[in-house]
Design goal:
By secondary structure, this protein is an alpha/beta fold. The chain has two domains: about 280 residues, Aminopeptidase, CATH 3.40.630.10; about 70 residues, SH3 Domains (SH3 type barrels), CATH 2.30.30. Helices cover about 30% and strands about 15% of the residues. It has 13 helices and 16 strands. It has an eight-stranded mixed β-sheet, with helices on both faces. Strands 11-14-15-16 form a four-stranded antiparallel β-sheet, with no helix packed on it. A hairpin with a 2-residue loop joins strand 4 and strand 5. The longest helix is centred in the last third of the chain and has 18 residues. It is globular and about 70 Å long. The chain starts with a helix and ends in a 5-residue tail after the last strand. It binds zinc ion. The site of zinc ion has 4 residues, from loops.
């Protein structure tokens, strides 16, 4: 059986159940979402939801799983990482990372990128060859109370490792699909903050830091579940407001706090420095930030041209897979100085923020299986998206906004190949140069369009999403 079809099948069933319950992203996010997150802008529901369900119905091997509880899938043999969504601490993660490294020494390297203010390691799991051609950066739990995302990332890690040699995705073997990549995963970017949210202020070891966070409590005026709802790091800095992108203009709380204090300078915090270190050493082709809550994919940070197109393609892929609504960060007035803002606007790297879950944070354990199922294929989806291999059109997401007869340029040269036919088996004619101009002749399907290359007059097919 094709392993990768199992989670997709279960996800399709789950989506149907969610639809029946009237509980898709837009429907229930508003009431339940974190009040500190900005309102989700009105946009149409992601196109991929129904398509995914329809695709899976057509799978010849998907029917076996119908009727099983979603919790039964995806199946991991003798898993190291727990599956119940219960509190998953820094120590749990640390132990599991090293267990995974022991079990999969060929595929996984674990290292510390630095130490938090309270002496916890900021771990990076490197899946794949660090010498690989392409690098993808994924970080979770930069906001403390959103710590269920650590478990999501750890499960993704174990799932990919366990199935690396046996599963396939859209008929391509995992080993082949992931072969060109190294995934750099920070499953718990903010270990001190997560510890505060999970275990309370007494779990902070340094008396000086305990005094600092008690001061935050006073300045913020406390409130119900104050510690559980902690977002900042161990010294009251909101790490997702500490990046050097719109930092100067961002006001925030103006004092150390559980939430929205930007710090004394951009990248002043070791946790932010850890992310930047990965990006320096292994420049990523895309980044994913896992947050909660609201069931949406934030994208569109105010860039234009090829970068806008590439970010849209990334957001479409994530939205289509998860069923979460694509939400413009600009039009929903998202705060600045965040991780995704920084990578898109300052580094020109396509990035999105995925807001997992629908309840207020910390998310209840019951949400875990839905979130896991929504995200189980995210990594192969990313690998496919940035692959040189054309995606079969039956799986492609819909792009819009192209006009026949207009001149477009080659947006991401690395991926833009002129083909003799709009199919995966179509012979590649040649790679197109940076900014090569093309006249759009026809949109063939969700994925390919027929173009005339202005300079040479050649006619062929290219992937629409790489035009701008
Ligand atoms: Zn967040």
């Amino acid at each position: 059986m094709r392993k990768s079809s199992l989670p997709r099948a279960m996800m399709a069933i789950l989506l149907v159940v969610m639809l029946l319950a009237g509980c898709l992203a837009g429907a229930c996010a508003e009431g339940a979402k974190d009040e500190n997150e900005p309102a989700v802008a009105e946009e149409s529901a992601p196109e991929g939801v129904e398509d995914d369900a329809r695709d899976e119905d057509g799978e010849d091997d998907a029917g076996d799983d119908a009727g099983q509880a979603p919790e039964d899938a995806p199946v991991l043999a003798a898993p190291i990482v727990p599956t119940d969504g219960a509190i998953y601490t820094y120590e749990d993660m640390e132990q599991d990372l090293f267990e995974l490294q022991k079990r999969y020494p060929e595929l996984l390297q674990v290292r510390s990128l630095g130490t938090s203010c309270d002496g916890r390691e900021i771990y990076e799991a490197m899946l794949g060859d660090p010498e690989a051609e392409k690098h993808i950066l994924i970080q979770a739990s930069i906001h403390a109370r959103e710590h269920m995302n650590t478990l999501v990332a750890m499960r993704q890690l174990e799932f990919t490792l366990q199935y690396y040699d046996t599963a396939d995705f859209h008929d391509v073997a995992y080993s082949e699909l992931f072969g060109d990549y190294c995934f750099h995963v920070l499953p718990m970017t903010n270990p001190d903050g997560v510890t505060i949210s999970q275990l309370g202020p007494e779990a902070i070891r340094s008396p000086e830091l305990r005094a600092v966070i008690e001061e935050c409590h006073q300045l913020d005026g406390g409130g119900k579940d104050y510690w559980q709802r902690w977002k900042a790091n161990g010294r009251g800095v909101d790490l997702n407001r500490n990046f050097d992108s719109g930092w100067q203009e961002y006001k925030g709380t103006g004092h150390i706090s559980s939430d929205c204090y930007k710090g004394e300078a951009p990248a002043s915090e070791p946790e932010v420095q850890a992310i930047l270190r990965v990006a320096e050493e292994y420049p990523p082709i895309c980044t994913i930030s896992y947050h909660s809550t609201g069931g949406c994919v934030y994208w569109d940070y105010g860039c234009q041209g090829a970068l806008f197109q590439a970010d849209r393609a990334l957001a479409e892929a994530a939205s289509s897979l998860t069923g979460y609504k694509m939400t413009s960060s600009v039009t929903s007035a998202q705060d600045a100085a965040g991780c995704s803002d920084y990578f898109v606007l300052e580094r020109g790297i396509p990035s999105v923020t995925i807001e997992n879950g629908h309840a207020a944070c910390p998310l209840p354990p019951e949400e875990f299986s839905d979130i896991w199922l929504a995200n189980v294929d995210l990594w192969p989806t990313l690998a496919e998206l940035f692959s040189d291999r054309p995606v079969p059109s039956e799986y492609a997401t819909e792009s819009s906004g192209y006009v026949i007869g207009q001149i477009y340029r080659a947006g991401v040269n690395e991926f833009l190949t002129l083909r003799e036919s709009p199919s995966t088996s179509g012979k590649a004619l040649r790679r197109l140069g940076v900014d090569a101009e093309m006249e759009l002749l026809e949109i063939v399907n969700d994925e390919f369009c027929r173009v005339r290359v202005v300079e040479t007059g050649e006619v062929g097919y290219v992937m629409t999403k790489y035009l701008y």
